[in-house]
Design a protein that fits this description.
The protein is α+β, with helices and mostly antiparallel strands and 316 residues long. The chain is built from 6 helices and 17 strands. It has 2 domains: 98 residues, no CATH class; 202 residues, Jelly Rolls (Sandwich).
Length: 316
């Protein structure tokens, strides 16, 4: 009785010079076991365990080679179990990478919030709100009544997760906001929000949120929610960029330095949404159509104190 096992170890990244890159489908069709003159593929080994050994459902007839390999005292049982474990780990990693490609996202924005009457600031003030048509999937960036940012995501399964800032934000100057959603190694979902490079909020749930990360497939609003009328809030946007992936350390650092330098320019131009105005783009287009008083202003002009707050000459 001779058993040969080949093609291992299976890893997500190359660890040995003899390893070759292959697709998941090709890996399943590779012959990895030679036993008693018979060759077996990865998919056959999986089928043995799933359909013949009671893994998925019990089958009364078991191949003789499989019986011999798993017989009591067989020296082949241990390496065969390791084969199945590596195949399982490869399957899990492939699934995780597929979900991350669809779900992971990062949003970068340079925003400014002018001084405005308290009556214009609601408990929830939407910076942008995006809803996938005829689906629970939703992405929202908002400020509360203390102008503390939050990021909300709701998945295809109807489960939602929100991360809230843990501190006040000084809006006396433009701010760089980063909001991110990622699937972690254990398939949990992590939401984070940062201001000017400092993380100010993090939330996590144990399951993956199935959210498409491309806003091209969503109906999108600026300065209002998808299911309500225009709000009386006012804010400005100099730039908003969304990546359908988690940026690497070098790219994230470059984006941060670029945004911090850009927002420091007092002459930086913003699209300013006045109370009652909003922007809207339909699914399948990135053309943002404006309604109401939307104009372009510099940071210097937007943040200039209102005339009522500037003291006039005194009379002696």
């Amino acid at each position: 009785m001779i058993l040969h096992v080949s093609g291992f170890p299976i890893t997500a990244f190359r660890q040995y010079n003899t390893q070759v890159e292959t697709s998941f489908i090709d890996m399943l069709s590779r012959e990895i076991i030679s036993f008693n003159g018979n060759l077996y593929t990865s998919s056959t080994v999986i089928e043995w365990y799933a359909n013949k050994a009671g893994g998925a459902h019990y089958a009364p007839r078991i191949p003789e080679d499989f019986v011999a390999l798993l017989s009591e005292g067989s020296i082949a049982a241990r390496p065969l179990a390791k084969v199945l474990m590596q195949l399982g780990e490869a399957t899990l990693e492939s699934g995780r990478q597929l979900i991350k490609q669809v779900v992971d996202l990062e949003i970068y924005a340079i925003l400014v919030v002018p001084t405005q009457p308290d009556c214009n600031v609601s408990d929830v003030n939407y910076l942008f709100d995006a809803q996938y048509e005829r689906s629970p999937m939703r992405l929202s960036l908002l400020l509360n009544n203390r102008l503390m940012p939050s990021f909300y995501a709701r998945g295809l399964q109807g489960v939602g997760l929100q991360v809230d800032a843990d501190r006040l934000v000084d809006w006396s100057e433009p701010r760089h906001i980063r909001a991110s959603l990622r699937i972690d190694d254990d398939l949990s979902t992590v939401l984070e929000i940062a201001v000017d490079g400092q993380r100010i909020g993090r939330s996590r749930i144990e399951e993956p949120l199935f959210v498409l990360s491309d806003l091209f497939h969503y109906e999108l609003y600026h300065n209002r929610s998808v299911d309500s009328q225009a709000q009386q809030f006012s804010f400005g946007v100099a730039e908003i960029v969304m990546y359908g992936r988690e940026l690497g350390p070098a790219s994230a650092a470059h984006m941060l330095m670029y945004s911090l330098e850009k927002r420091a320019n007092q002459d930086l131009q913003f699209v300013l949404y006045s109370p009652g105005s909003y922007g809207h783009s339909c699914k399948g287009t990135k053309d943002l159509r404006m309604s109401g008083d939307v104009r372009q202003e510099s940071a210097r002009t937007i943040l200039r104190p209102p005339e009522s707050a500037i003291g006039g000459p005194t009379v002696g």
